[in-house]
Amino acid sequence: MRTEVIKVNSDFPELDRIARCAKLIRQGGLVIFPTETVYGIAADYNNPKAMARLREVKHRPSDKPFSIHISQKWLISNYTSIKATAVYKLIDACWPGPLTVIVPSRKEGETIGIRMPQNNIAIRLVEESRRTVAAPSANVSGTTPPATCAEALRDLDGLVDLAIDGGPAAIGVASSVVDFTKEEPLVVRQGSISQEEVDRITQRKTILFVCTGNSCRSVMAEYYLKKILKNRDDVEIVSAGTGVFLRATASTETLAILSKEGIDASQHQSQSLNNILLHKSDLILVMTKTHRSQVLDRCPVVEDRVYFLKEFAHEQKGHEGDLDIPDPIGKSASAYEECFLTIKEALGKITNLI
What we know:
With 354 residues, this protein is an alpha/beta fold. It has 11 helices and 14 strands.
């Protein structure tokens, strides 16, 4: 019996068709589906019968594990407790996209390959399945991974339950696989991401400024430090807010102060603090004790990377209660000026440490 093929719009996937395929995965079925790299086979990773059938269809050796697909970056923490900043730097730069990372599994002594594809059909299928989805390429082991649904069905027609035809894969080459269980990140299968690019991204230092709304204090700090370090390609400077719910521009007063320094921050868009940002950052600089508590409540493992920005504004640390940089929002222009002078003094000293 031949495998049924359904066509799905890659730009705007028909949700009823995706739902049908996802239900089949929940029931233990196998579904061919497109990604931006090659076509894959989706199966419920935690269903032993489905996985045994997947291994049989693929002719996959029993000692070779299957990677999984996720639909959001932060979901990586469901499968690994790895703390290395390098992993988070790379997935933040390359996900969604043609990258699989091998990391220690939460199951002791095991590893797992994880990828977040850049394909609307793939993302929707993983989301809708509500399962951990194993997703190897849709070919018999040892043969070329397929770039189209028709190529996938040459070997697998009749062996899987359903196939989604979403058109040709945009890249047509399997994802790069980077092993993070080694001493240094190692590309063990090169796709469109090279070892050189992996090294460049993972070795770059990340400095994160944290305030509440990401419209005043952290913006001043981010853009002023970017000006100071404008020739440093080895440093990434970002900012975020603990209370950002809607993206917004920097405050008018902040833009005016930075403009006096020859800095244009008019394109700034506030962003909410998230675990990926925290995990990837080598230095996290907060404005107040409340921000520090919020950071550590969210991500305790970064405690040794969190500092008060104001600590660097004086030769000696004051009492902890003196380390807050007050929020100038809604206050006078002089409050903004005073805030910026404190930030500027601190950044002058931080620059010497970077």
